[in-house]
Amino acid sequence: MADESKRQELLKKLADGVWKFEEDEVAKAASEVISLGLDAYDAIMNGLAKGMEEAGRLWEEEEYFVPELLLCADALYAGLGILRPHVRMEDKAKSKGVVVIGTVQGDVHDIGKNLVKMMFEVAGFEVHDLGKDVELERFVEEQLKTNAELVCLSAMMTTSMLGMERVIKMIRAKNPKVKIMIGGAPVTQDVVQKFGADGTANSASNALREALKMVAALRTM
């Protein structure tokens, strides 16, 4: 078994490799994690996800734009492809949940939504991504079809944000137990309460934390 300093070294290589878009370095570090018998789930959450968090921060500070984020995503998935098959069953069980996610009708912004989706995938959620400019009824249909525990709605414009309230009412009418998270630039805590959602998050990593809490709460019900 490798020692702690080796673990830390590889976690740093994975994280740095993602936000510096060094696909080959990430794949090499991920392979080393497996060959040394280190924990694949730990490498995903404290290596790859940490790197994606940094990429998200750089994007929010407008140091990174869409092309850079896509390169980060390529590096992330290079590591994920190697690590994910080695995640232990108990880790899969503790993080698994089903999520429906999309950007609401009238809105074609999807970078934030894609970041959140990536974090869910990294954590082992089953993600049903409806894309952008999604008809409001589709969220309800998809939730019923997949029996998702969580529905995530995204909007970057105040006008399209109003559609979220209608989606939430429609989902609650069919399935009051489902947790609903909303996000995007115009979304505040006041909006969450007014629309009847369960939460919001100001970053992809916070969205993941909120989602895990919501799913855990549902499962204890």
Looking at this protein, list some descriptive labels:
10 helices, Rossmann fold, Methyltransferase, Methionine Synthase (B12-binding Domains), Chain A, domain 1, alpha/beta, four-stranded parallel beta sheet
Task: Give a concise summary.
With 221 residues, the chain is α/β, with parallel strands linked by helices. Helices cover 63% and strands 9% of the residues.
Describe it for me?
This protein has helices at residues 4-19, 23-35, 40-60, 66-83, 89-95, 111-122, 136-146, 158-174, 189-195, 204-220; strands spanning 98-103, 126-129, 150-154, 179-183. It has ten helices and four strands; from the N terminus they run αααααβαβαβαβαα. It is α/β, with parallel strands linked by helices. The protein folds into two domains: 4-91, Methyltransferase, Methionine Synthase (B12-binding Domains), Chain A, domain 1 (Orthogonal Bundle), CATH 1.10.1240.10; 96-220, Rossmann fold. Helix 8 links the parallel strand 3 and strand 4. It has a four-stranded parallel sheet, sandwiched between helices. The model has no long low-confidence stretch (mean pLDDT 88). The protein is globular.
